[in-house]
Amino acid sequence: MRQQLKLLLALAAMGAFGAAQGQSSVTVFGSIDLNFTYSKAGHASTKAMDQGGYLLPSRLGFRGMEDLGGGLAAGFWLETAVLPDTGVTQGGFGRRSTVSLMTKDLGELRLGRDYTPTFWNVSSFSPFGTVGVGGSSNIVEGWPLGLGRARTQARASNSAGYFLPRGLGGLYGQFMFAAAEGVQGAGYRGGRLGYESGPLNVAAAYGQTAVGVDDYRTVTVGGSYDFGVVKAYANHLRHRLGRERQTNALIGASVPVGAGQIRVSFARSERSGPGPGTGGTARQFAIGYAHNLSKRTTLYSAYSRINNRGNAAYVVADSSPAGVAGRRSSGLQLGVNHAF
Question: What is the CA radius of gyration of the chain?
């Protein structure tokens, strides 16, 4: 009798597990990206094994969704940075850690650490994204924290976000509020509205964070249009803290060639206001080629040059020598990216 009871309990547990599996799913995802980077800043140069040169840095994540019935679903997303050149992870799940409730008709409520609305224009409307020697963030001051280390240029902790539902005739949007809670929070509020239909995608975003007695404010407007033979990008970013401000503008294109695409961009930044390091301009030109060996594996190359003027001292890569005010920085990158 005892053995039969154990068997029934085991079968019941297996049935419950199977039912749960039928209603929910968990996915392991990420990418491993490694490259060789040769870069210069002023008269100094360096050769390094680096990571994260193609669209997104190396990462490891877990995401899942459960159907709660009645059109309601719950989901989670945990994502951490990976440094494959040394084999370690970095910063816990600092890239994203969220839990969500969502419906098809009402949209999504998302809680946790997430990308800010103002991040997406900088990332989406550039052929190189924000990574690698051609990344659009290379001449954005303070990236990914912001002016005055506001900590909300790319991500915000302790946030509550709302995403508009799909099916609004191409309209999409994200709105976020983040509470200021110790060193991990910074008190952010912002939003993004966009329109995507066929080859056209345009969006505008605004974000604001309290930093001491001043507010860190970011405004971005950008878009892309796919003509088939070429996809064009443009983005304008303006952020300021008190009397310190920086304006960035970018235009770019990607051209499909066989199993790959040629990517090219030109960006310009101008920073002004009181304080050290202000009063300079920078121009970045980047060109590269990405060859898709499969849907998940890509070989890529890129060359970038930043011409600094005045007090500007930007560099093309994290592994570059320290920037020198008013001196050029350049870099060549060859790498492979495998997504899973």
Answer: 22
The domain total for the chain is 1
Instruction: Locate 122 and state its tokens.
Output: 């900088």
Question: What amino acid is encoded at 43 in this protein?
Answer: H
**Start-to-end C-alpha separation, the chain:** 48
Task: Give pLDDT, residue 275.
Answer: 76
DSSP 140: S
The CATH number for 309's domain is 2.40.160.10
In a domain, 174, yes or no: no
Query: What range does the domain containing 127 cover?
Result: 38-51+118-158+183-339
pLDDT of residue 182: 63
Residue 97 lies in a domain: no
**Of 75, 67, 158, nearest to 116 (Cα)?**
158
* Inter-residue contact 140 to 154 (CB < 8 Å): no
Nearest 5°: the CA angle 176, 191, 27 is 55
Mean pLDDT in each 10-residue stretch from start to end of the chain (340 residues)? Answer: 37 39 80 97 96 94 96 97 88 93 97 96 96 96 92 94 96 95 74 98 96 92 98 98 96 97 98 88 98 98 98 95 96 98
CA dihedral 129, 246, 223, 113 (to 10 degrees): 60
Which residue, chain included where needed, has tokens 């419906």?
A: 103
The predicted structure's pLDDT at residue 193: 98
